[in-house]
Structures are given as C-alpha cells and as structure tokens.
Write a structure and sequence with these properties.
binds cytidine-5'-monophosphate, alpha/beta, Rossmann fold, five-stranded parallel sheet, 218 residues
Length: 218
C-alpha cells in the first residue's frame, strides 16, 4: 500500500494534480478539503453557527466520504466557511480519523489538503508541497470564475486568497506548512502538464527506491 500526501495553499493546482496522479497510478483519491466543505455546507444550510464545536463534530461523524461532490461544494462561501470551522481541534480530529481510514485503501491512495504530510499521514511514502505565488494563484482562480460565468475582479480574488492563506497558515492546530521531508513544487511557471511530469518523476524515483531489493554487502 502506498500513500501520496499532497499539501499546499488554495488554488496552487494541487487538486487537479492529485486527480491526475491518482489516475496514473490507479490509486484512490480524497480531496480532504471537501470533508471540511461538507461540514460547512451542512451548517450553512441549516443556519447553524460556525463556531459550535460539538455540533460540527456531530455532523463530521455522519459524513460519507464516498458521496462528496466538488461541483456541489465548490461555492466560494462554502470554502470561506470551511476555512473558519477548520480551526476547531475536535472537528479536525473527527475528520482526520475518517481521512486516515481512507488512506489505508488498497492498492494506494492520494490525499490532498493542508495537513496531510504533517498530521494525517506523516508516514506517507511520498509527500509533495505544491505552491505558486499569490498573484498567479489569484489569476488562475479569477480565470476559472469568469470561465464558468461568474462575476468578480482580480483584486477581490487576490484579497480572498491572501486572507485564506493567513487563516490556513496562522491557525494553532495543524497550520499549513510543508512537512520536513516534502518535495516542493512551485507551479508559478508551470502548466498542469509540466507540474504532472515533475510530480511523476519524484514519485517514480521514490517508489523505485522502495522496491529495490536490498543488496548483501560485498
Ligand atoms: O482545499 P479547499 O479550498 O477545498 O479547502 C477548504 C478549507 O478547508 C481550507 O481553506 C482549509 O481551511 C480547510 N482544510 C484544512 N485541512 C485540510 C483540507 C482543507 O484545514 N486537510
């Protein structure tokens, strides 16, 4: 069983990359952001407060990982609410538990999020930290919103990205940061194909090393 842990800030391209990598290796993929988003959506829909940890934990325990749908959960307000509730330690504990169960699936898994290499799967065989400059990430997110018929301006999107970074990197519990043994990939100057090639080379090198038979000393 192999686990590939992929972390990075919002709109760095880790979601698309994770899906492609999971497809290439025949592994199961979990976008852990969706688990936080699903709890956030439930709270928003039910007009429940975003800071009641007991309620959030109760909802987290009922979440079915198989049924999480990015199309339903992609709304900007849901992402914002997700990053607010993600500061609550007991909620994180409940979701991390479910994520770890997923990570044990055969023949292997790709999990992406903010704390996969540091907290959820610290023993993952491969850890990648995907990043890009805030302006580049904001530009990509802006294009995405416009292409899908939304209305916004670049300044607003950049402001949101910076706010989200601050919240995700500044929280006390499981802040976003690269694991010490993570491979850093800066996608500022790369398209998705180039990022995929770089990631694949890193993963292949690690996996090859793992399966090489131990040689007896000469
Ligand atoms: O990646 P995505 O934008 O879907 O994540 C939404 C929010 O969920 C993030 O901004 C972050 O606060 C939270 N999150 C987290 N840990 C993860 C994945 C997401 O705290 N592993």
């Amino acid at each position: 069983m192999t686990t590939i842990a992929i972390d990075g800030p919002a709109a760095a391209g880790k979601g698309t990359l994770s899906r492609l990598l999971a497809g290439a290796y025949g592994f199961h993929h979990l976008d852990t952001g969706l688990t936080y988003r699903a709890v956030a959506k439930y709270l928003l829909d039910a007009a429940l407060p975003l800071d009641d940890e007991d309620v959030a934990v109760e909802i987290a325990r009922t979440i079915e990982l198989a049924g999480l749908d990015r199309a339903v959960l992609s709304a900007h307000e849901i992402g914002e609410a997700a990053s607010r509730i993600a500061v609550m330690p007991e909620l994180r504990k409940a979701l991390v538990e479910a994520q770890r169960v997923f990570a044990r699936r055969q023949p292997g898994t790709v999990l992406d999020g903010r704390d996969i290499g540091t907290v959820v799967c610290p023993d993952a065989e491969v850890k990648l930290y995907i990043t890009a400059s805030p302006a580049i990430r904001a530009g990509r997110r802006y294009e995405e919103i416009i292409a899908t018929g939304g209305e916004t301006d670049f300044g607003t999107v950049l402001g949101d990205i910076l706010k989200r970074d601050e919240r995700d990197m500044g929280r006390a519990d499981s802040p976003l940061k690269p694991a010490e043994d993570a491979h850093l990939i800066d996608t500022s100057e790369m398209d998705i194909e180039a990022a995929f090639d770089v990631a694949r080379d890193i993963i292949d090198a690690v996996l090859e090393q793992d399966v090489l038979p131990l040689r007896a000393p000469d």
